[in-house]
Amino acid sequence: MATAVNAGARLDRLPISSFHYRIFWLVGAGMFFDGYDLYVAAGVLASTIQTKFSTLPQNLQFISWTFIGMTLGSLITGFVGDKMGRRFTYQINLLIFGLASIAAAFAENMTQLIFCRFVQGLGLGAEIVVGYSTLTEFVPPKTRGRWLSMMAFLVVAGFPATALLGYLIIPTWGWRPMFVIAGVGSLIVWYLRKNLPESPRWLEAQGRTDARAYLASRPVEVELRAIQQALDFAGETRCALHIVHVSSPEGLALIAAARQRGVDVTAETCPHYLLLNESDVIHRGAPAKCAPPLRDEPRRLALWEALRRGAIETVGSDHSPAPAEMKTSKNFFAIWGGIGGVQHGFELLLSESSATGQLPADLPVLAAVLARNVARRFRLGAHKGVLAEGADADFSLVEFGPERVIGPQELLTRHPITAYEGRRSRARITHTFVRGEAVWAEGRLTGRPPGGRFLRPETKSA
Question: What is the pTM of this model?
Fold first, then answer.
């Protein structure tokens, strides 16, 4: 089991994608307001002089304390960033800047405004430093120069924006709205950047091997690149392709686009991508580790939407149990990656559908992705995946009743570890039949002797 993160190499190999543009705009939006604020002083100070809110010496103090704050902020932020992380540092700097800007708009005298400006300067100086450094940690060296030049353009773009807004606002409403714009805009960006990922390079440099570091080392863009490569090869060779463990709606979009181009491709996801999210990895730890890792909640919900509209053809258990010693380590990267879920995956999908009010509409959807579509894709549709005359009578009976909490005491696997411990389920599989004979009934195996048969795919899809 690999224990190294290799974050830099992973990031540098990523093709430019929506991931990089998302990072760029999240960072760049804050940098734009930094540029805006750098140039706001001219219009504000002209207005304060005109309205006798300030004197010329006070205006000079305003400018001086701005740059004192910027100098201190730029000196301090590097040490804080190395200690606390790029994401934390960038967010706290923007929060300081935004709150100080709002406070400046309500200053009762020039002394208060100068103090607010000093605090703004702390956030402003720090933001500029960590903004550029954060971007460089995500973009590959080959194109880093152009990304930084685009970032610089956003900073400089703050000048004409400030000039235009000052021309339109200050003569009528005074200088205070200029700070409100900077503060409110910065706080909106701060909120949007709450999902900004931590730099994997920083996590690796810190020797971080926890669950958060594992998630950061495997962004969805890595999955997308693998899917795209497989799709390209399938398109060139005209082979049939079945992509398993799709964890993101973006991956499904790539598959749908390839299908439109004539690629013979189908998509599979797993129950855990439909039932769990990345917070379960952080809070549950090893039982919820898999690859690709569990994604965020919006992506989980988007997978359900895709399932219901037919964009996911099959759902496979990806059952991967392991003994306790393989699921225990201080190094999360060294832990066996796999979720044992074959026992509860089906019933929890039914429970989830019931809890969200989607039953009985989801029943034919689940029957298709768990049975019919699987049999058809692997050319076993003549005997499997349907209840019809001449087909094998493989089916389960499910009962809905009071909620119960899933615990280790009911696990039937040799290694009783599950990511679903503590989940509530209303569904219970009462019977399972294979070729018409019960193999599971009322909570126990029936003792029927094994009777598996080797099945050959049909020459044509059923």
Answer: 0.74
